[in-house]
Amino acid sequence: MAWTYDAIIGFSNGMLKGVEFKKNKFKYTNLLDASITLNNLGYYDESKIIISSKRKMLLFDLKNKKMSKKYIIQESGNIIGVFKKNNVLIAGVDNGMVVVKPIKQTKIVSEKISTGSHLSCIREVLTLDKFATGGNENPLKIWDLETGKVEFTAKSPKPDMLQLKLPCYVSDIQFFNNNKVVASHRHGVVDLHDPLSSQRRPVASCKAENTGFVSLRTMPDYSDYEVIVGTSKGSIFHYDFRGKSTLPVKTFRGSTGSVKSVSCINYLNQMHVMSISLDCHLRIHNMNSGALTMQDYIIAKPLALLSKPDEIQI
Fold first, then answer.
1. Residues with Cβ within 8 Å of residue 18, at least 6 apart in sequence
2. In this structure, what DSSP letter does residue 136 have?
3. DSSP letter string, 25-60
4. Of 78, 87, 140, 217, which residue is the least packed, with the fewest Cβ within 10 Å?
């Protein structure tokens, strides 16, 4: 099994590093030198990951530490998210197009799906052949991959007391085990939606003042109502949609730059929150106490974080 790392970090200069947790220290393995413009990372299988670079999807072999295949996207714009679903690769482009690239012969009909302008986020639905998209004034939508048709479109929250329209800028999307979906926004709101209900507006919302939400993570093995969000000002908040208050349950401190990615990991038999931020640090916080367990300066600016897939957690 090639995935021997606890996490993989992609950097703005194209570097790729594997990270292992060793006795309260981080051990780094250099997987790729600064040779490409890296946008984001995605899972492929237990021995490969997907790297997006401008209009290319690259399969990277973790064992041999080299590129194994390249797919070109014929779209103007940059890829903002990639993932593998069954026998296809799916790439979201910031011009609003979602490109479906068959790995081999498949029944998938659509090769391109228009999801609306200013796309900033695309996520797969793990247990179904669906995916979700969102962006700047482009609300949360859930799509059927086989038909290419939208199945759910979120409505904006009700206008404020002055009847002014509230902004919509989806920055990240995640799914719970109970089929509910949560979307974070650049204006400091995280919304919980229930696609199975007739209600298109959020069924619950949490807010933060004077900051924006950049990254998001659900805790599927922990709760179907709790999320971790990273902000543009370095804070990491823990929210629980079951509470009466819209304020965070807990705040994880220490970052001074925008939190590009957050993930939940099992470390020392306890739940921890792992994060990368633009102050060039990798951090691990204890989920229960909120205390900073480990941190390290990682020189270059990190853009993407992949934690070890749950199915091969040791």
1. 4, 5, 7, 8, 28, 29, 31, 62
2. B
3. EEEEEEEE-S-S---EEEE-SSSEEEEEETTEEEEE
4. 87
d(CA 186, CA 121): 12
- Contact indicator for 145, 131 with CB cutoff of 8 Å: yes
Cα 273 from chain centre = 14
Question: Are 39 and 53 contacting, i.e. CB atoms less than 8 angstroms apart?
Answer: yes
User: Residue 310: what are its φ and ψ, rounded to 5°?
Assistant: -60, -35
- The closest alpha carbon to 280, from 308, 259, 307, belongs to 259
Q: How many helices and strands in the chain, by DSSP H and E?
A: 0, 28
pTM of the model: 0.91
Residue 314: the pLDDT is 35
Measure CA of the first residue to CA of the last residue in the chain; give whole Å. Answer: 12
Three-state DSSP class for 216? strand
The two beta strands, 56-61 and 48-53, are: antiparallel
Which pair of structure tokens corresponds to residue 136? 């700047």
| Burial class of residue 23, CB neighbours in 10 A (0-12, 13-18, 19+) | exposed
Quote the pLDDT of residue 312: 44
pLDDT, tens digit, 9 for 90 and up, residues 154-169:
997 777 778 888 889 9
Tens-place pLDDT, residues 270-282: 899 999 999 999 9
97: Cβ–Cβ under 8 A, 6 or more apart, which residues?
A: 75, 77, 112, 113, 114, 115, 119
Q: In this structure, which amino acid lies at residue 143?
A: W
Q: How many CA atoms lie within 13 A of 192 on its CB side?
A: 22
Distance CA 232, CA 227 (A): 17
Provide the sign of the torsion angle of the four alpha carbons 21, 277, 11, 67, taken in this order. Answer: positive
